[in-house]
Write a structure and sequence with these properties.
Strand content: 15-25%
Order of helices and strands: HEHEHEH
Number of strands: 3
Strand order of the largest sheet: 1-2-3
Helix content: 40-55%
Shape: globular
Largest sheet: 3 strands, parallel
Number of helices: 4
Radius of gyration: 14 Å
Length: 96
């Protein structure tokens, strides 16, 4: 997993040194495990730091109506961050 996520982590560290005025992240996950959960928390905290320096940062956490687990995890992340964290229910049937 480190080989997969390391480039993303390095990129975000570099980006945080000189971020754009507005940063938006959109996530649509069906499932993820503990390692990815830890990575997402680290990533969100990095984005939260960018937000607290005066930049606009928004996260859009998309979840399917029947995926209560993903919704609840999104609510947990939202509760510990100061940046705008939007929970958006999607209808997978309409996406096809």
């Amino acid at each position: 997993n480190d080989r997969f996520f390391e480039p993303l982590m390095n990129w975000l560290k570099e980006y945080a040194l000189s971020p754009l005025e507005q940063t938006t992240m959109e996530l649509h996950l069906d499932y993820f495990g503990t390692e990815v959960s830890k990575l997402l928390l680290w990533l969100f905290k990095e984005l939260d730091l960018i937000f607290r320096t005066g930049h606009q940062v928004s996260i859009y956490w998309l979840y399917e109506e029947n995926n209560i687990d993903i919704f609840e995890v999104g609510e947990e992340y939202k509760s510990i961050l100061s940046l705008p964290f939007n929970l958006i229910m999607i209808d997978k049937k309409k996406m096809i």
